[in-house]
Amino acid sequence: MSSRKSSLDAENCRSCSSFQDYVKEAKKKFQKEKQTVNIKEIIVEPPVRKDCPLDKEQLGHYSWSLLHTIAAKYPENPSSMVQKEIKDFFAIFSNIYPCELCAHDFREELRRYPIETESQEALSQWLCRIHNKVNAKLGKELFDCTKVNSRWRDGWPDGSCDYQTKLE
Question: Largest alpha-carbon pair distance within the chain?
């Protein structure tokens, strides 16, 4: 991200932290003060509005959704120009992503595992592997990359993503 400073650089930057980060910090504070209080009794989640800025977890979820959808719609036989554009896109994305720690980590993954742009399948599988590396670091469940096109392009074989099913 750019080196210019803004109010978003502060500790309370929503795209750099999440409610779970707040809970962790609160627990640390209470442990330092040696209080024997159940943290769950003290912290009450505020009412959730739908029009608030995204926190780090929401931003990550929506960003991965965007990236996987782009990969799902990528051509099966892309021209050299399209391949250059997708490489440029990922490079730019990794430089402007609002969470600097996340952006740095993504740039490192791009450096270690160069983007595969030969086909839709190659790009989707590459992105799934990168996403799983992030999930592993965060202690999240890994996604079965053999199902990436069902999840992001075609819909599940049981038809649960079909519009008619949703209307019934």
Answer: 63
